[in-house]
Amino acid sequence: MKDKKIFFIQYPKCSTCKKAKQWLEKNNIAFQDRNIILETPTEKELETWIKESGYEIKKFFNTSRVKI
How far, in Å, CA of 44 to CA of 28, rounded? Predict the structure, then answer.
């Protein structure tokens, strides 16, 4: 994975995102930063990422504040 650059999609005001970004930088891990507000993922991108990841869809969304 050393040659691969991580695609880091983040919300700049999110404290968890800030910590993750700091960790990546501290550990000299190359990443491509993308502000989710300025560059919202398209439906096609989401479909592709979900399909290629093998994860279930809920892994892609923060639902910790959602009350069901």
Answer: 30
